[in-house]
Amino acid sequence: MAASVRLRPLRPEDRDRLLGWRNSPEVAAYMYSDHPISPEEHARWFAAIAGDERLDYRIIEMNGAPVGLANFYDIDRPQGRASWAFYLANPSMRGKGVGGMVEFLMIERAFGEKELRKLWCEVLASNEAVWKLHLKFGFTVEARLREHVVKNGRPMDVIGLGLLAEEWTAARPEALKTLRRMGFDIA
Predict the structure, then answer these.
(1) pTM (2 decimals)?
(2) Is residue 99 part of a domain?
(3) Can you give the pLDDT of all 187 residues of the chain as single tens digits?
(4) How far apart are CA 180 and CA 125, in angstroms?
(5) Do residues 8 and 101 touch, judged by C-beta distance below 8 A?
């Protein structure tokens, strides 16, 4: 059986799961903020994202099980661009190509369904595996934001990466081949 990764909209029952994921050391290590998120803070955030057209949050499912979160934010339709991010909350999913499949699905949504012309992301420079994954899918390093965030009391650099729709057209065939070799079922 081929591996299946899909992105589904958030549901009310995801709220507590997301709080647990976000506060886990495995996820918090790669976020801009360090503080533990309180249930009240999380409830306000969860309520605020509903209906905001500049946001689009999706639960990542692997073979039907929730394993992470992917999102578009700062969706700017007049400018044709958005930022995006994802995380795999379940450490057992890392290193199995799930991140690559999420990358593929989100890029497809950006340039297909959302009809954007540019996708942008920021990654802690220390998170080399993720920014190198973006490069494999056609992204270009557009910025190194020096000492852009403070993590654990230390200033850290951030890598800014961008992908244009026409660049995705060129990178897509190789991405498809790679994912199929890894056993992912791509319709």
Answers:
(1) 0.94
(2) yes
(3) 457 899 999 999 999 999 999 999 999 999 998 899 999 999 999 999 988 999 999 999 998 999 999 999 999 999 999 999 999 997 777 777 899 999 999 999 999 999 999 999 999 999 999 999 999 999 999 999 999 999 999 999 999 999 999 999 999 999 999 999 888 878 6
(4) 29
(5) no
Report residue 106 as tokens: 């989100």
> What CATH number does residue 166 fall under?
3.40.630.30
DSSP β-bridge partners for residue 164 = 118
* Class of residue 113 by CB neighbours under 10 A (exposed 0-12, middle 13-18, buried 19+): exposed
Q: Which range of residues forms the domain containing residue 24?
A: 5-181
> Looking at the 3D structure of the chain, how many domains does it have?
1
- What HEC string does 136-177 produce? HCCCEEEEEEEEEEEECCEEEEEEEEEEEHHHHHHHHHHHHH
* Count of other CB atoms within 10 angstroms of residue 84: 24
Is there a contact between 36 and 23 (Cβ–Cβ < 8 Å)? yes
In a domain, 133, yes or no: yes
Neighbours of 95 (CB within 10 A): 10
Phi and psi (nearest 5°) for 185? Answer: -90, 105
Domain assignment present for 74: yes
Whether 187 maps to a domain, the answer reads no
